[in-house]
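I'm stuck. Protein, please.
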Amino acid sequence: MDKYTELGGNFLDTANYYGFGNSETIVGNWLKKQDRKKIILATKVRLPMGNGVNRMGLSRRHMIESLDESLERLQTTFVDLLQSHLWDNSTPIEETLRTFDDLVRCGKIRYFGVSNVCGWQLQKIVDKIEMMGLNRCVTLQQQYNLLCRQPEWEEFMVCENEGIGVLPWSPLKGGILTGKFSRGVTLNAKESRVGYQYANRSKSNPPLEWNAYMDDDNYWKLMDLMKSIGEKHGKTIPQVSLRWLIQKPVVSSVIIGATSVKQVEDNMGASSGWCLSDEEMASLDEAYPRPSVYPYDVIWPKQKDRYNFKNIN
């Protein structure tokens, strides 16, 4: 974290569920030694933090209790961004949104966002907020990378229409987009998250992520393309992967996860001082295209001349 801020980073994203509170504790111990005004701090609420129905979800009770516990672990009086970790079918969305609004109004959070929602859920959130006259939802944290582009179908169109910033998680797909792997080579459990998952695979928990790509010709063509583009710019494959995200107009910031200072330095090298050309962006878009599914395969081709957004591919 010292190296990250030294290189210009100022946004830290965590969650109460990560390490069952340990992640927030680590961040809090570091944060108390920093200038709080320079850090944009985000955390999340929703997933179970103990036994019992009142220790999970997006009810008013659990949200307020969880935030108080998070603030204690983070050793701060407020978080800049509180996000719902998942949708909660058991709580009326009006209750959740009103609680977010109350937390903004009392100063415990500055803004709120959502994570891991589908298109209709995000649009419902936006519409309810407008109808109820509440503080607006400002961010969507969603998995988004060169291999996971399904959010472009609907969620990001809502973001474009409603002015919601996207915070991609897993921008390197657990290590699959780093260029570390070669065809036929056994994954090293210590080198990446996907390697760890593969090494600890079982019939009940198969390594679905890597299985989907290890024999996929399009994946290996994408890796060759990123290597070629990276060599042209003097950049690494992870930097090309991250730069592709940074240059998407809907993206506000990219959530990186590093296990070493070297990885932090490499990831931060994607953030400024260079750009991918329009042609390079298009070639990356086309190298591993979104899956064509109904009704989008019918809707999109017939609507291309009616879009107001230039970043819709």
User: Anything to note?
Assistant: Residues 25 and 73 are 5 Å apart (CA to CA).
